[in-house]
Amino acid sequence: MGDTVGTGPGGARRPTGAGDRVLLGSAALAIGLVLGPLLWPVLRGRVYVRGELGNYTLHGRAFYADCLERGDAFVWWPHLDGGLFVHGLGQLGLYHPLRYAQYLMVPLPWSFGVEVLLSYPVLLAGMYWLLRRW
Fold first, then answer.
1. Which residues make Cβ contacts (< 8 Å) with residue 77, sequence separation at least 6?
2. Bridge-partner residues for 4, per DSSP?
């Protein structure tokens, strides 16, 4: 069976067939090679602790999860810089609905690992969307 002609972005005609399947397979393999090693520690219940993830973000998430568990307010972090209005920084995204539910229902190592990994598929989908329309 030969190559057929499909419709690309903007109605442009483009060839499809075996070449597209090879490209799709190669992209899936590359994505798996990148996300696989990142997923491995999460599956083992471990967390990333290098750089800012371990020096600030993980501590912030642990504080956030503890406050949610106890029912305490989490916008003020008394142990950082002599007391800090953490919500004002915005880096931790304390009121994001996905993050709120995630840290309320799932243990910290799983929540943090999923949070770190979730950005990569979203990034790939956004890049795919951008390049398809470029």
1. 60, 63, 83, 84, 86
2. 16
| DSSP state, residue 75 | S
Locate tokens 């442009």: which residue? 12
Backbone φ and ψ for 81, nearest 5 degrees, come out as 55, 35
- Rounded to two decimals, the pTM is 0.69
Q: Are 117 and 42 in contact, with CB atoms under 8 Å apart?
A: yes
CA 93 from chain center: how many Å?
Answer: 13
Q: What is the CA radius of gyration of the chain?
A: 21
Task: For 45-97, write each residue's pLDDT tens digit.
Answer: 888 787 777 788 888 899 999 999 999 999 988 888 888 888 888 778 889 89
Strand partners, 15: 5
Alpha-carbon distances of 85 from 42, 48, 89, 92, 132, rounded to whole Å:
30, 25, 7, 11, 41
Amino acid, single-letter form, for residue 40: W
